[in-house]
Amino acid sequence: MKLATCMHNSEVHLAVVQADSILLPAGCPGWPAEIDSMLQVIDDGDRYLADLHELARQSGREQWIALDSVELLSPIPRPRQNMMCLGWNYMEHVEETTRKMVEAPKLPKYPIVFTKAVSSMNGPFADIPVNPDVSDKMDWEVELGVIIGKGGQGIRREHALQHVFGYTVINDVSARDLQKRHKQFFLGKSLTGACPMGPWIVTRDEIPDPQALNLACRVNNQIKQNSNTRHQIFDTATVIETLSRSMRLEPGDIIATGTPNGVGYVRNPPEYLLPGDIVECEIESIGTIRNTIIAA
Ligand code: MG
Predict the structure, then answer these.
(1) Distance CA 150, CA 204 (A)
(2) How far is CA 107 from CA 88, 89, 242, 260, in A?
């Protein structure tokens, strides 16, 4: 099932997406009107996912509205805590960035983890503001996003995927100058609007193997990144095991699982996102997000 958050008639609603139609459960007879957000569904997934399936099955065509009549928002517009992000999780991305630093490629022994501020969250088709006085080195990073369903600590690898609620597309937009200047990644990864996500969450039952998904990034229709999640150094199950060894994962937590090769700053000459550019990130079996860079 594809679950989205959308703006319809100036109100934010939970939505079920099928092809080019959407269903707003809150407006359906029999659905508890107070259950109208993604986090509510994630918090009690066992109960509401089955109900949403049944609601979608039995709703007549008159209940569905055109997908293009709503504005899709980030599936979780305001996460409860920072997004957790993997750095250097694709071999060829390690190679391209270490080449840039004139070092022999060295694979990380443990996942490299940083976070992205809640305030950087942005919609799947929203504009990304760039202020050249703050950064003139904004870069793209297509990533598979993993949404935690059932929380837990000490989750074993073999059970890890059962803790996934679903998957989404993330562009981990990065200000390379700030990332370098401030030593820690946090500020350079957390510019306002620098985390478009969506266009929806695909529940885990529809993605039996998160390590077999093509993912790509295009800037102004030119392919910049084109890889597959099978090239990840640490797979989703290992990442969940590693994170949950140290901290309790909570329902609704978001993990960005790293970007493949093809980012802008290691290109010769380097390439960055400028006002007017259109950046698209696409993942097989999930969908495409498309954002325009605008001058802040
Ligand atoms: Mg990244």
Answers:
(1) 12
(2) 8, 9, 17, 14
Q: What's the pLDDT tens digit per position in 20-77?
A: 999 999 999 999 999 999 999 999 988 999 999 999 999 999 999 999 999 999 999 9
C-alpha–C-alpha distance, residues 148 and 250, integer Å: 7
Nearest to 165 by CA among 250, 257, 72, 56: 250
Distance 4 CA to ligand 1 centre (A): 23
Instruction: Show the tokens assigned to 144.
Output: 């598979």
Q: Ligand 1 centre from 172 Cα, in Å?
A: 5
- For the entire predicted model, the pTM comes to 0.97
Is a pLDDT exceeding 80 seen at residue 187? yes
Model pLDDT for residues 192-204, shown as the tens digit of each residue: 999 999 999 999 9
Cα–Cα distance measured from residue 53 to residue 40, given in angstroms and rounded to the nearest whole number: 16
Q: How many whole angstroms from 257 Cα to the centroid of ligand 1?
A: 7
CA 143 / ligand 1 centre spacing (Å): 7
- Cα of 71 from ligand 1 centre, angstroms: 26
Q: How far apart are CA 169 and CA 285, in angstroms?
A: 10
> What is the Å distance from ligand 1's center to 133 Cα?
23
Could you tell me the distance, in angstroms and rounded to a whole number, from the CA of residue 87 to the centre of ligand 1?
6
Residues with CB under 5 A from ligand 1 (ion): 141, 172, 259
Residue 91's alpha-carbon distances to 52, 97, 173, 258, 264, in angstroms, are 39, 10, 20, 11, 17
Taking the centre of ligand 1 as the mean of its atom positions, its distance from the CA of residue 285, in whole angstroms, is 20
The Cβ-side half-sphere exposure at 101, using a 13 Å CA radius, reads 10
